[in-house]
């Protein structure tokens, strides 16, 4: 939902090695993020000869070192590698490929129609005090192709840490014409203003839960506030990114970054699971998240999330598991519905 990554060293020549790109640090939503190395595995001659792709399914491999020191991706109890880093890496790679290889014009904003990520094997995600590397095997399938340029992409990614397959991600994106994008934003804003909570004063103190309740160490990275309402196990929490935050804030006149919905889902689920089921946030991990998006959220309007939980279950190892359903709203408009699963690793 943000602008696509820039790149350096983007065009290696055929036939060996395959085209490789380095997604640069300092991009929107990736403050101080280590470079991501992307390798194209084309199935067609065009992929070698033109540094571009035919509008058919294409395969890429991405590698990166999991960060040891990062103001966002290493903020917290240091128990697990951050799932948000894998999701952000997949997002950046998909946007880069869309513009660099599939030739989607850079002035067409991307809309996430749906997105999901799963942890399949927990052991590689545990931090053990030494550097670890991550690889993503990415498959991109163009949809609604017009004059050789897709108006959407379906994305599948397999995650491995230190060579051990341990997760997966999916997403479906649409690329909007600028005029259509502006119309969506204008209509959505009008709908969001209906029944919206009054905006907080610029000088008002941002209300958040304690960082440890949200699995964080720095209050700047806490997205959710104390519940506004808690009735019959349903909790409504405000979502209040730190103004100017390098990853979570959309900026003046901007829309809410997609990373906010994933991280706010995780934090809200932690807060509610701790309250209702006694989960310990430092040892709870998000193992499943899937979301369906209905439009852009406005960064300058109040955002809330409503969390409903089921009775906790146990996995094959006897560990507690809680399933949640989360709805993000601005005023009378639902922006996103998500399901999230937390595992207490104890």
pLDDT average, as an integer?
A: 85
The CATH homologous superfamily of the largest domain is termed: Hotdog Thioesterase
CATH topology of the largest domain: Thiol Ester Dehydrase, Chain A
Give the ordered list of helices and strands.
Answer: EEEHEHEEEEHEEHEEEEE
Rounded to the nearest angstrom, the distance between the terminal CA atoms is: 36 Å
Description:
With 346 residues, the chain is of the alpha+beta class. The protein folds into 2 domains: 7-176, Hotdog Thioesterase (Thiol Ester Dehydrase, Chain A, Roll), CATH 3.10.129; 197-344, Hotdog Thioesterase (Thiol Ester Dehydrase, Chain A, Roll). It has helices at 45-49, 83-100, 178-193, 258-277, and strands spanning 7-8, 20-23, 36-41, 58-65, 110-119, 133-146, 149-161, 164-175, 229-231, 234-239, 284-293, 303-309, 313-314, 320-330, 333-344. The chain has a 15-stranded antiparallel β-sheet that branches. It starts with 6 loop residues before the first strand and ends with a strand. The model is unreliable at 1-19 and 24-31 (pLDDT under 50).
């Amino acid at each position: 939902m943000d602008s696509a990554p820039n790149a350096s060293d983007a065009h290696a020549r055929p036939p060996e090695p395959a085209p490789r790109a380095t997604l640069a640090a300092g991009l929107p939503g990736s403050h101080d993020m280590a470079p991501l190395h992307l390798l194209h595995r084309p199935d067609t001659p065009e992929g070698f000869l033109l540094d571009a792709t035919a509008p058919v399914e294409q395969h890429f491999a991405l590698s990166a070192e999991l960060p040891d020191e990062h103001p966002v991706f290493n903020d917290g109890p240091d128990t697990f590698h951050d799932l948000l880093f894998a999701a952000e890496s997949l997002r950046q790679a998909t946007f880069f490929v869309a513009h660099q290889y599939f030739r989607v014009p850079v002035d067409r904003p991307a809309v996430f129609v749906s997105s999901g990520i799963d942890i399949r094997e927990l052991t590689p995600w545990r931090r053990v005090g030494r550097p670890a590397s991550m690889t993503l095997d990415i498959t991109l399938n163009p949809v609604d192709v017009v004059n050789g340029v897709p108006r959407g992409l379906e994305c599948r990614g397999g995650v491995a840490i230190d060579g051990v397959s341990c997760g997966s991600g999916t997403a479906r994106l649409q690329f909007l014409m600028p005029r259509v994008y502006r119309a969506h934003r204008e209509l959505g804003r009008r709908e969001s203003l209906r029944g919206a909570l009054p905006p907080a004063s610029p000088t008002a103190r941002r209300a958040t839960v304690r960082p440890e309740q949200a699995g964080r160490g720095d209050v700047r990275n806490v997205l959710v506030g104390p519940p506004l309402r808690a009735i019959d196990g349903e909790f409504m929490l405000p979502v209040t990114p730190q103004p100017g935050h390098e990853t979570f804030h959309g900026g003046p006149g901007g829309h809410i970054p997609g990373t906010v919905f994933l991280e706010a889902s995780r934090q809200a689920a932690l807060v509610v699971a701790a309250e209702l089921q006694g989960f310990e946030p430092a040892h709870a991990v998000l193992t499943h998240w899937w979301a369906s998006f209905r439009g852009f959220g406005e960064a300058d309007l109040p955002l809330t999330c409503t969390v409903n939980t089921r009775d906790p279950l146990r996995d094959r190892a006897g560990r507690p598991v809680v399933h949640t359903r989360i709805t993000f709203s601005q005023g009378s408009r639902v922006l996103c519905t998500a399901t999230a699963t937390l595992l207490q690793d104890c």
